[in-house]
Amino acid sequence: MLIVMSNKTTGSLYFWSAHLAGPIWGPFASWCCAWLEMIGLIAGIGTQAYGGSKVLQSIILLSTGTNKGGGYLAPCGVFLSMYVGFTIIWAILNTFALDVIACIDTVSIWWQIIGGAVIVVMLPLVAPTTQSASYVFLHLETSPDLTGIRNKAYAIVLSFLVSQYSLYGYDAAAHLTEETKGADINGPIAILSSLGIVSVFGWAFILALTFSIQDPRYLYDANNETAGSFVPAQILYDAFHGRYHNSSGAIVMLIVIWGSFFFGGVSVTTSAARVVYALSRDGGIPFSRIWHKLHPTYKIPANAVWLCAGLCILLGLPILKVNVVFTAIASICTVGWVGGYAVPIFARMIMPRKNFKPGPFFLGRASRPICMIAFLWICYTCSVFLLPTVYPIEWDTFNYSPIALGVVLGLIMFWWLVHARKWFKGPVSNIGT
C-alpha cells in the first residue's frame, strides 16, 4: 500500500481518461470517470456484503434444520446486521491489517480456483438427475408467478445482467498496472487473463448449477427447504440431500461460495478506497482534505476506507423494507463500475490518430471497431440494469437504482457546471517525473 500512496497518479481509469481526452476535455473526462468508478466500487462493496449475507443466511438455515424442519431463517433486521458487519470487518482489515490482506489475497486465489473447480465437477456428479442440454441451452423460464414477467423478449434482455455483473474482476488488474514492472505489457496481459478466467469459471459454474436443477418451479417456492431465498442453495440442497439424505455437502459448498464473497469484499474495499484517495487528492470530493489524509502509522487512506464503508451501509438500509435491494445495489455497481470504462473507451474512439502514441500492446486497425463495440455494449447493459425486474411495480419491489443514480449524478454534474470546472484539473502527480 505504501507503493500505491507514493505512486505518480493512482486511479487507473481516472488517469487514462484524462490522458486520452487531451488537455481540453481531460479534466471533465477524468471527473466523470472517477465519480462513476467510485460510485460503482462503493456499491460493489454492497453487492459482496449482500451476497455474503445471503449465503450465510442459507448456511445458518440448513445448519439448524431447514425451512420445513424448524431451521432459523434470519429476518430482515438480522440480515442487515450481517450486511453491516461484513462491511465493517472489511474496513477494519483495510485499515489495520495490511499484512493480513496480503495473505488473504493469496488464499483467495486458491480458494476460488480450487473451490470453484470442486463445485463445478462434483455438483453434476452428486445430483440424482441432470437436465438435458436442450433444457440448459434452449429453455426459457420466465417464472411469471414470481416475477410478473411474461414477455420472453424482455426476459432475454434481463438475462444478460448476470454475466455483466460478474465481469468486473479485471478492474483490480487495471489498478495494479500502476504498480507493476513492465506495465505496458504485463498490465494488458493481466486484464485479459482475469477476463478469461472469470468468463470460463463463471460460465462453468452457471452450467453446473443449471444442469443440476431437479425441479425448476420448486426453486422459487417460498415453502421449500431454503425458503426460496437463494436459488443456488436450493440446487445444492436438492443435489446432496437427494443423493445422501442430508445437507452437509450443501453446507460445505455454500461455505466455499461464502468465502468468495468475503474475499471479494476485502478486495473491492481496497479498490474503492484507492479511487476515493485519488479523487480527494485532486480536490474532487467535498472535504477532500479529510479523505486524502493518511493514517500516521499505517500510511493508508483510513478515512477514505471508512467513508466507503459508511456509504455502503447507507446503501443497504432499504433491506429493511425493499425486497429487491440486491438488484438495486448490483445495478448501481455495474452502471458506475462499467460506465467508468465507457469514458476512456469513448475518448479513445474520438481521439485524433496523430495524438495517439501506441505502446507495445496495441490492437492496430482493430482498436477503433473494438472500442465501438465495447462502448455500445456498455451503453446497452447500463440501460438494462435500470429496468424493473419484478412486476407489478410496488414499494417493496421497486428498483430504486435509477433514482439513486439520477440524483447523485445530477448533483455531481451540477457541481461541475457551477464550480468544479473552474479549478479541477484532473489527476496530479504525487512525485516528480
Topology (elements, then pairings):
Elements: H1 2-5, H2 13-63, H3 76-96, H4 98-126, H5 133-138, H6 144-147, H7 152-166, H8 170-176, H9 183-211, H10 231-244, H11 248-281, H12 288-292, H13 302-316, H14 325-350, H15 367-384, H16 401-418
Helix pairs in contact: 2-3, 2-11, 2-13, 2-14, 2-16, 3-11, 3-13, 4-9, 4-11, 8-9, 10-11, 11-13, 14-15, 14-16
Please provide a written account of the structure:
With 433 residues, this protein is an all-alpha fold. It has one domain (2-422): Amino acid/polyamine transporter I. Helices cover 68% and strands 0% of the residues. It is built from 16 helices and no strands. It has helices at 2-5, 13-63, 76-96, 98-126, 133-138, 144-147, 152-166, 170-176, 183-211, 231-244, 248-281, 288-292, 302-316, 325-350, 367-384, 401-418. Helix 14 crosses helix 16 (401-418). The protein is globular. The two termini are 20 Å apart. The model is unreliable at 1-9 (pLDDT under 50).
The geometry reads as globular
Round the Cα radius of gyration to an integer and report it: 22 Å
Architecture, CATH level 2? Answer: Up-down Bundle
In this structure, how is the largest beta sheet organized? none
Which CATH class applies here? Mainly Alpha
The helical percent reads 55-70%
Q: Decide which structural class fits the backbone.
A: mainly alpha
Named CATH topology: Amino acid/polyamine transporter I
What are the key terms here?
0% strand, disordered N terminus, 433 residues, single chain, mainly alpha
Would you kindly provide a brief summary of this structure?
This protein is an all-alpha fold and 433 residues long. The protein is built from 16 helices and no strands.
